[in-house]
Write a structure and sequence with these properties.
The complex is a heterotetramer, with 2 copies of chain A (234 residues) and 2 copies of chain B (241 residues). Chain A is an alpha/beta fold. Chain A has a single domain (8-115, 146-215), classed as Glutaconate Coenzyme A-transferase (3-Layer(aba) Sandwich). Chain A contains 6 helices and 11 strands. Helix content of chain B is 15%, strand content 24%. The chains are: A alpha/beta (234), B alpha/beta (241).
């Protein structure tokens, strides 16, 4: 069983134009930054990306956006990208927005063999337009469908050579579910360790979901909104 | 679905304390203080981006509440001390935060399972419009700018109690509490309470019941600033500061 | 915030006759044994129990069964209870069996605000009788409904006073999901620790789901099938 | 739904090595050895209770497979050494087991999400009946005893490949490979391969293709013990031991 690849370039060697790719992270927190940079360098085109956000202008997925690599995006919040806004208005990109809980549950469903489920979220709003709605026990729900992808790019704090992953703090976010919902899941980690070094009770993503793993070349881990308080007081 | 929206107060993710003029700050302070009095010991609470976040500064002494962040955290603490900020530790507004004793982290999917499953005692969030049925609009203005709804639709649909925290009227003085929302909804018939600098209003099946009025204002003052008809509560009283 | 109760008796003080109770564990592994014993002592009647198994004759949920406290049971495997078999044949108990994955997903759905979902499991079998079936992308699925309960009895290895729980090895099983799906979740733990003693990245069940917690009086942790190999060889 | 079933081979949770006569043991040994040859490096495999469990003893050297247990474990190791058994560490047959380096634990819900999501490369399980469409019955005999289906229905519905491991006929010599199953199904059209002590059979859209025959047996021998019609493979060969 050999899942370890040399680097980000090797990890994405066979990602073709037109792929659907899930990309972990919330804002810039927990994004697979090395894989994104590699994909920008490779110049793969015509991508459908599935990610909660689209980075910021000039960083993270903003790189792919600026390079015109993204044809269609599915997410829940894109407020940090002036460029995206412009591209949507100019119809250079298709954008599908979903409530964040529906978005995350659709990904979980994709990985868990559930083709569709009912949620109360969005009933009575435009999110429910053209969707099946239904009464269960006197409350109305909207039917939503699973999301799947060809590739998932996820970022973990630590991973072993069999792909068992551990995330750190809120950098976990969408990574664990995306890892389950793609044909080929590629994990980049800050620390690649030997099999057996991770406590089996503390594994967040079991290795079964990970096809390729490598230690990221460089972690900038950029902070989007640095908010601090004075050392004295508070 | 393609969505066009304008820069929204509810989605404005700049720390409000740094970007609002002093008069607004005072209004906001009164709103969040009043809402903080609704907190109960042991509550698990989600505070929306912007003004609602400030409720955390006024938790009554002697009670413990746990703040949830929909990006996967229970137990949000204050902003970190300079130099201790951690890129892996942010709130739903993407601000660096700290953790409290008893914190737990989980995936976004688990976080929204928690929200949708009705486990959040209280959700406080901003709004552009609320109407007399308790419907709320806070995420988009068609034809303007693109942002996305984030987690707000899930929160309003499933939190046990939803409180809207907002200024009573727009900057231009137009009512924000309407007979019927005109903007695309975030949730239909979901709001329980509306707290503004002018009033504390309960949404009931028969309409909006005015429970409290800010000091020095009359029922008519509030009604004039409100498009929806207000029903004076039998126990109508002055809002505590 | 005070969730700590003195003991198992105190924890179940208000469980009325006719309650629906989820009980964690797989076989005898990870069962809330103190809560079960307390419920047997209390003699609460007419219960609907939701649990993968029903213990064994004379131990675990077998105690409740023998005392005639269970009126109806929903689970997936009951092969260890001769008594149950007899009671079903004599129509002294209602038994609903579900595929284990459907059973566990229904509980997860109950806790996650999903009233119904589609699964491929059981399509074309009697499990799908009288249920809605549906084609998604050329494959047939069965619609299944969420399960909820009045109470959930769960057992963890370690827990803090705010109800954050950590499970150990395969004793995790159904406990985490059941903790989310009841009005009142009661957790018993082998080690009750102070708030802040559990690493926030390693919490399996966040305290939000737990209303009451206590350190179990006595852990027998009985083994159902002891299988070993010789020290030499193999 | 009320279910009545008989003591089933597939659900018999006693370690088979301790309860079967020697002749059966020899048959079973041949079956599980043949199935073990289907394993590939990196496979994640679920082995059903009873005979399928024994496949683990014959993993070809030089390859690594990870065994899944539907009660929430990847990385099942051998039975523990006497005195090291742990009540918190059991397999789906409720037997005490050990863990391997690289093991992970997870909830039953996560385990069946894994199974239902199609992440298990291979599921091996016993059967009372299999038919020419690949339908399988292994969990109940109406009017007899009550056990329950456990996880078998999820496994047959969603594992990437399903291999049935069973003796070719009942103790009374009656065929178990039928034109159509008579017992309530565990899964409809789900089996890929049937391995018995007599044959290795592939389920195809046009019927059951006999790929391998046990040494010293003829096609007619196998057909006589099989109710369904067998199609000889163009590459029909002798089963390797």
């Amino acid at each position: 069983m050999n899942k370890v690849v040399a680097n980000s370039e090797d990890a994405i060697r066979d990602v073709p134009d037109g792929s659907t790719i899930m990309i972990g992270g919330f804002g810039l927190c927990g994004i697979p930054e090395n894989l994104i940079r590699a994909l920008a360098r490779k110049g793969t085109k015509n991508l459908t990306t599935i990610s909660n956000n689209v980075g910021v202008d000039g960083y993270g997925m903003g790189l792919l956006l600026a390079a015109g690599q993204i044809h269609r995006h599915i997410g829940s919040y894109v407020g940090e990208n002036k460029l995206l806004e412009q591209m949507v208005l100019e119809k250079k990109i298709d954008l599908e927005l979903a409530p964040q809980g529906t978005f995350s549950e659709r990904i979980r469903a994709g990985g868990a063999g559930i083709p569709a489920f009912f949620t109360p979220t969005g009933f009575g709003t435009i999110v429910a337009d053209n969707k099946e709605t239904r009464d269960f026990d006197g409350r109305m729900y909207v039917m939503e469908h699973a999301l799947k992808a060809d590739f998932a790019f996820v970022k973990a704090w630590k991973g072993d050579k069999w792909g068992n992953l551990v995330y750190r703090k809120t950098a976990r976010n969408f990574n664990p579910m995306m890892a389950t919902a793609a044909k080929i899941t590629i994990a980049e980690v800050e620390y690649l360790v030997e099999v057996g070094e991770i406590d089996p009770d503390l594994v967040h993503t079991p290795g079964i979901y990970v096809k390729r793993i490598f230690q990221g070349e460089q972690y900038e881990r950029r902070i989007e909104r640095k908010t601090v308080r004075p050392v004295v007081g508070c | 679905m393609e969505i066009i929206a304008k820069d929204l107060e509810a989605n404005d993710q700049r720390p409000t304390t740094m970007s609002k003029p002093a008069k607004d700050l005072d209004k906001r302070e009164r709103i969040v203080k009043r809402i903080a009095r609704e907190l109960r010991d042991g509550f698990y609470v989600n505070l929306g981006i912007g003004m609602p976040t400030l409720v955390a500064n006024h938790v009554p002494s002697g009670i413990q509440v746990v703040l949830q962040s929909e990006n996967g955290m229970l137990g949000i603490g204050p902003y970190p001390i300079e130099g201790q900020e951690d890129p892996d530790l942010i709130n739903a507004g993407k601000e660096t935060v700290s953790e409290m004793p008893g914190t737990s982290y989980f995936s976004s999917t688990d976080s929204f399972a928690m929200i949708r499953g009705g486990h959040i005692d209280l959700s406080v969030l901003g709004a552009m419009e609320v109407d007399e049925e308790g419907s709320i609009a806070n995420w988009t203005i068609p034809g303007k700018m693109i942002k996305g709804m984030g987690g707000a639709m899930d929160l309003v649909a499933s939190a046990r109690r939803v409180i809207v925290a907002m200024e009573h009227t727009t900057r231009e003085g137009q009512p924000k509490i309407l007979k019927k929302c005109t903007l695309p909804l975030t949730g239909s018939k979901v709001v329980d309470t509306i707290v503004t600098e002018m009033a504390y209003i309960r949404v009931t099946p028969t309409g909006l019941v005015l429970e409290e009025i800010a000091v020095a204002l009359t029922f008519d003052d509030v009604q004039r600033a409100t498009e929806a008809r207000l029903i004076p509560s039998p126990t109508l009283r002055t809002m505590e500061a």
